[in-house]
Amino acid sequence: MSPSTDPPSEESTCHVSVLPDEIVQWVADCQPRVVIDGTFGGGGHARRLLDVVPADGLVIGLDRDPAVLARVESQPPTERLTVFLGSYEQAGEAMKRCDVKAADAMVLDLGLSSDQLADRNRGFSFQNDGPLDLRFDPESGVPASEWLSRRSEKEIADAIYQYGEERASRRIAREIVGRQRERRPVQTVNDLVEICRRCVRRGKHHDIHPATRTFQALRIAVNEELEILKRTLQIAPQWLSPGGRLAVISFHSLEDRLVKTAFRDDPRWNVLTRKPIRPGDAETQANPRARSAKLRVAERATS
Ligand SMILES: C[S@@+](CC[C@H](N)C(=O)[O-])C[C@H]1O[C@@H](n2cnc3c(N)ncnc32)[C@H](O)[C@@H]1O
């Protein structure tokens, strides 16, 4: 993990934070001195969180994406913010590096940012052709194209079904592996979009693009998103002070289910949001990305 103490710039990111007022309110209520923003992204939440920590307080940011760190480093530094390149499951290590024993709140805003979606070289947007990469950290692990070439047809189908809830998963996996046999493996966004178009029957209302579920599934698999979230929910109470809060914004049912059950079934958590908090109409109109967001908050039990 490499730290940077430079602040985020509003101008250099196109990401609009989701549920910013709600995040600030839930965090501010516990009067935090140290807050961890585990998914720093464009720094929108972190910027708002700096307003609720005292003059001797600290916001510790983490993100897996080196482009986030590069953006932070191009800005003039600020004392109360330190951003690390690394996964949010390494928050304990980041705290040690900042000489912090316990945090008072942690925020996770899962998924990807609009900056990542807009970058053609990352493969996140099936509207733009480019290499099929899909990694949050393009400097570690393997790109999605290589992930596909190393898996069996069944493993690919299972991942697309499990992480994308895509009914055409078997057909899609068969075509992906078929192309590999013909020595023209799936390497670009368009290669995979073409396959999805052929395999996925569009619903009556044509509500989502035929590649949406498959791209979501591969992104989750390549980045091991659910495994990391599960491990973090398990370890996070150790990082928080008694009464410290964890606020998680998720964007699909698989993530939300993990958060809901971890909060409900682990006696170290007190659930503060009986039902998930959803963005209002004004927010979803201004920021359509917010439509599927769900925020859940729990606090570390005091005994
Ligand atoms: C939705 S964006 C966060 C936006 C941010 N809250 C804001 O207001 O600008 C999600 C970010 O989480 C990062 N990310 C995804 N998985 C991560 C992980 N395991 N650890 C750290 N960052 C992660 C992505 O690289 C992306 O930058």
From TrEMBL:
UniProt-listed Gene3D superfamilies: Putative methyltransferase TM0872, insert domain, Vaccinia Virus protein VP39
Main location, first listed in the record: cytoplasm
Organism superkingdom: Bacteria
Record's keyword annotation contains Methyltransferase: yes
Residues holding S-adenosyl-L-methionine: 43-45, 63, 88, 109, 116
Compartment(s) where it occurs, according to its Swiss-Prot or TrEMBL record: Cytoplasm
Keywords from the UniProt entry: Cytoplasm, Methyltransferase, rRNA processing, S-adenosyl-L-methionine, Transferase
Entry GO MF terms: rRNA (cytosine-N4-)-methyltransferase activity
Enzyme Commission number: 2.1.1.199
GO cellular component assignments: cytoplasm
Residues that span the membrane, as ranges: none
A Pfam family assignment: Methyltransf_5
InterPro entries xrefs: RsmH, SAM-dep_MeTrfase_MraW_recog, SAM-dependent_MTases_sf
Record region (Disordered): 276-303
Reaction(s) the record says it catalyses: cytidine(1402) in 16S rRNA + S-adenosyl-L-methionine = N(4)-methylcytidine(1402) in 16S rRNA + S-adenosyl-L-homocysteine + H(+)
Enzyme class: transferase
PANTHER family the UniProt entry points to: 12S RRNA N4-METHYLCYTIDINE METHYLTRANSFERASE, S-ADENOSYL-METHYLTRANSFERASE MRAW
Entry similarity comment: Belongs to the methyltransferase superfamily. RsmH family.
Function: Specifically methylates the N4 position of cytidine in position 1402 (C1402) of 16S rRNA.
Protein name (record): Ribosomal RNA small subunit methyltransferase H
Source organism of this protein record: Roseiconus nitratireducens
Lineage of source species: Bacteria, Pseudomonadati, Planctomycetota, Planctomycetia, Pirellulales
